[in-house]
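In response to a reviewer's request, we include the raw inputs and outputs for one of the modeled complexes. The two entities were modeled together in a single run.
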Amino acid sequence: MTTPWRKAVRDFWHERARTVLVVLAIALGISAFAAVMSSYTILTRELDLGYLATNPASAVLRLDSIDEETVKAILQNPEVNDAEPRRTIRGQIKAGPVQWRNLMLFVVQDYGNIRVSTLVPEHGAWPPANGEILIERDAFQVAKASIGEAVIVKTANGVEQPLVISGSVHDVGQAQARMENIVYGYINLATLVQLGEEPKLDQLNILVAQNRFDENHIRRVVADVEQLIKSRGHEVRRIDIPAPGKHPHSDLTGILLLSMSSFGLFVLVLSGILVINLLTAMMASQVRQIGVMKAIGGTRWQIARIYFGQALFLGIAAVIVSVPLGILGSRALCRYMAMFLNFDINSFAVPLWVYLLVAVVGLAAPLIAAAYPVWSGTAAPVRVALSDFGLSQTTFGASAFDRALTRIGGTLRLVAVAIRNSFRRRTRLVLTLSTLTAGGLFFLAALNVRASLVNTLDRMFAARKFDLMIGLANPYELEKIQKAISKTPGIKRAEGWFTTEASVANPSTADHDTHTSGLHGGGSDVNRFSVVAMPADTQLLDLEIIEGRNLAPGDTDAIVINNALAGKEKMRVGETVVLRMGPADTTWRVVGLSRESFSPAVAYIPLSFIQQRHPGMVNNLRLLLDNSDPDSIDDVKASLDRNLEQVGVRARGSVTKAESRFGFDQHMLMIYVFLIVMSTIIGGVGGLGLMTTMSLNVFERRREMGVMRALGATPRTVWLMVVAEGVVIGLLSWIIAALLAWPISKVIGDFITKVLFRSGLDFTFEPLGLLIWMVVSISLSAAASFFPAWKASRVTVREALAYE
Amino acid sequence: MISLREVSKTYETPAGKFAALKNIDLEIRPGEFVGVVGKSGSGKSTLLNMVAGIDRPSSGAVAVAGTEIHALSENKLAAWRGRNVGFVFQFFQLLPTLTAAENVMLPMDFCKTFPLRERRKRALALLERVEVGAHADKLPATLSGGEQQRVAIARALANEPPLVLADEPTGNLDSVTATSILDLFRGMANQGTTVMIATHEADIARVIDRRIEISDGSLLQQ
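The model returned the following structure tokens for the whole complex.
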């Protein structure tokens, strides 16, 4: 090692506390980057691998019924790798005295021979015997039950059948039960009969033979299969083609990780700022030494290399620290995401290229950050460098701004000195402020985005005036239902609605490619959207019309679309659209556009349209209750269920307003937690930055502090002055963050909701956030300047004055 | 060895123009020991800086050891200086994080003048020559002023320069130490090195070959 390198190492060792701070700050940035990059590779690989391991169906066909012969005939097609009949049926489940919960029942003919969309048995029995039900592992929390417990299950026909939960399975391909607030159950055909249903299967899972991941190929094969089924006299009601080879949550995970990795890079940039601060200060304190080195024959590049070497050292140390940290972080993140998305991770192996990328980024970042300070620091000609008298001679007082500062503080000498001192090194102040402010902005944005999400949901749910929605098994006469309702206490108002599905019949858009949308895109044919037929004078839904008008009494062909539908199908108010509802095509006039932020695509039509075809029939009830607490709702539900059954009306399922809100709240929580974690890490970098700044400030002003001590300042006063200076910087960052919080939060909130939900946000500002962040930033800056202040107060007068 | 022709240097200061050197003509022969004497602010240091290539003349020409140094770029000048000029400062200016021996090795590392393995041996020999060999592995902060200046002189000799310049080398030392330091310079000159010392002390006459007095930027007598 030549002497220039020894100097590089020893200078760092000399200032080791500060070096450690900066290494930590860079390591924090690289760790975040490494954690996200490795999580990205692990999660995308494991999610899709785990999903592919279940042999997911290329297409799911819903039929009136399917028989063995037809399945055999389909399997004759060489393009079809496999075909397996199943049944999916909606129902309700109740454990103990708990209320009914929505249930999705999967009926499998032969659990010993599941070949398409396989299930993984986890605990307990396999396969389920007669009278037994298996529950998806993530759905136990929704069912509020455990293995071995007896539950009551009913389908739309109303027969209440006690079943025993005999085991748990993992169904990788299902959206997470907790998020959907639904129980996934698995039974055999005999149990289905016990539930009073016909022992028939009506769903066919198809796996194509070649080009499994070619959607167009899948469509062609499925069209052949459809043809064959129809030729055998069966009806094909619906075909779902999921995005081939992709877990339903794959895109969501990708988006989340992508935003996290841009965040990781952002943190890296912030820690680069610390390197700039450190090296600028260092170069300034070494001007004379640089002059000496030039005087004895060092060229600019030879001298610059010493300091670049130091930056490289920072990078190497940071990479060594952050690779294991990043790996640990990625494991935690992967475990959390795996739990959240309900899948298992078999290998945490990270590909080599991620390590290489992290190393390159980690080494390059400090070098890039060092470029300007080092190059300009080594620029001074020898004579100028040699005549540098150290750093105590800054030119404070030269500008009008400095003189303006002298008016602040008044008789509070200490405060005055603290404020003026913090402004002495402008560039350093700006850089430090930018990291602290970034932390504050993310924190405030987290609170504001959360408040805005809550506000948006509040507005969305405020439009829904009903407390309880009951889906009926079939269309029933409203008259019959009203009898049951009149006998049920606690109902303030009830309306009978009709819900169905439709798609745009326009031939040019009929052959839509499947693409992702909504929370869990890619699951089904996106052409279809909900159609809600309601009385034109409904008092239970107060749509927020942003263009055109609401439905009015007397409307027959008027339709109101929500913003999701308008965006998806490019419909506009004033246009005429042809919709395929059931077997028939009908023409509609779009009269209004309603705003429902997080809602999927919905069209609202007058109930009178349905009544023309099915007079007096409804399939959906909306109820406004006297009391909307969960217990009262349960009471009403139970007694209404009984009364409906007495008149021969069967409910298929029910959702309270609170339940549908729950799923949204879960997704919002995730965003909120993500933003808070981000602001914590950035705040950490900011704190380290402030600590570096304060230690540099103290270091450069040792002589001044000696003078103050000589003039009679106690160590305590010196200590207080330094802490006050740090707090001034903290407060400044708070002011800037407070000023910028509104626009920045709005941009972040809009971006997130746009990416995740394809909808806008009703922005609202959380004033409490300002107060919280003020407390946090003051404490953070006081804590960050504590140690430098302590060091400053320990400098003896003689030492400080002797220091050059 | 050194040739200054009509050299002037003017500084722009906030208080107006300041002429540090006025029309200096000066010739110094190889192996000569020259003392530049003058009051504080008279232009001694500026004159030395011109010769070392640390500062450039506003007008005129400076040739040292056959090189027109006023025409060289900063980087070329640094490399040239490393090989041809040894500089000794009033405040020693040793690099605080390098040991005495390493400070002496630094110019050799910069100019790659000696094979890597020989540099330390040579540094130790130089330190031995200025009688601080025992302190070779100590950091500057642990040495006395006189010891630090001896190390600085060893450093100035590292690349065997034909010319050694010293700006007030004894200004910060007690008289006994100062005398021994001046004797070191005398020894150097006796061995053929050209030595130029700027000082405001009168008792330098004992060791020097020629005295140049400078006042308000002009040479008074030669």
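As requested, we also summarize the result in words. Chain B has a mean pLDDT of 88. Residues 71 and 173 of chain B are 36 Å apart (CA to CA).
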